[in-house]
Protein: Aminotransferase class V-fold PLP-dependent enzyme
Amino acid sequence: MTGNMWGWHDANGFTRLINVSGTMTSLGGSVTGPAAQKAAADAMGHFVKMHELQEHAGRVISRLTRAEAGCVTASASAGISLCVAGCMTGLDPSRAEALPADPGPRDIVVAQAGHLCHYGAPIETAVGLTGGRLRVIGQSTLCADHQLEGALNDSVAAALYVVSHHVVHYGQIPFARFVEIAHRAGVPVIVDAASEYDLTGFIEQGADLAIYSGHKFLSGPTSGIIAGRRDLVRAAYLQNIGIGRGMKVGKESIMGLVAAMEDWMSRDAATIRAAERAALDEWQAAVADLPGVTARIVPDPTNNPLDRLQIEIDPREAGANAAAFAAALGRQDPAIIVRDHEVELGYFQLDPCNLLPGQQSLVAEALRNVLGAGTDQAGADPRNGAIRAYLEWACG
Ligand SMILES: *Cc1c(COP(=O)(O)O)cnc(C)c1O
Structure:
């Protein structure tokens, strides 16, 4: 264990925590590697023509995604707004400046009901910020081809497809079919793939614009990536004269992200995977003999090359339910923040992809201590917890 693992937290009075939940905005997004940290720090010392910087990033995005063009924005959520706006205005600056008050005649974005997710904010808001309107097709668990076909008329600027563990996983139109139907009607497809490792597949299958988060698995600074057709990327970038201004990305984030993308392209995926597997094995062994606890290794639901440890709790034998244990782990020092968005189903998960050196065995120890001891129900309300944290925030 590194001696000063908590030096930064302690010096500032911040809660010590270990992130085994995945990439969470509420936990600071990502931890960047040394190359991205240095690139961001170097950029802070210079003035630069931002359009040149964005062209530089665009070339790296093209290599990463095999898209024609790309640019960087503040977040994937910002990317959704800019792409939608770009599809509405094209490369017309007066129309870009008129948003959101006057979205013009092509102001509709079509999306499947099962794709309307909440990633910390409703995706509808990212669309609505442009002045555009959503035309929702299908119901939560079923959407058929005719519903997409029937929704595509002259007022439609784009069709939005969302890939995420947050969306409904059955009964939706498959991506390739969605693209085929939209393109037949001359409508561009925007794919929100914020959290997906597949950086080339959606473009390859015909996405006109693909959006990725810079600070999720890529481990860049807080940022978003837009990749796709050159005309549409340029139209999305133009929105910086309008609604995009409040979504401005700085030179430090762009250069940090470029370094993170280069790191990603040269990473040793097999070694990373093996280290993640070793963590899952250690945690699984740590809880193997605890009553009412079953731990199994499960694959990622959207087929990212990532496994997690799912800890299933039988409350009669374990002494508390999964939600209570997840909350109790969060009260340890360091706090162990687990993946609890499906906790009502009787389990939580441990995600190994953001572990820092020395943390693996601290997690194993906390699991044994907490899961072996029973606990009370305090804080066991993850559905409302995120909002409560905002309402309790007292601004210093
Ligand atoms: C995380 C996420 C977003 C938002 O990404 P940010 O870069 O944090 O804005 C949008 N869509 C999906 C599907 C996500 O998983």
Summary: DSSP finds 16 helices and twelve strands in the chain. The pocket of pyridoxal-5'-phosphate is lined by residues 25, 75-77, 119, 162, 164, 166, 192, 194-195, 213, 224 (CB under 6 Å). The mean pLDDT is 96.
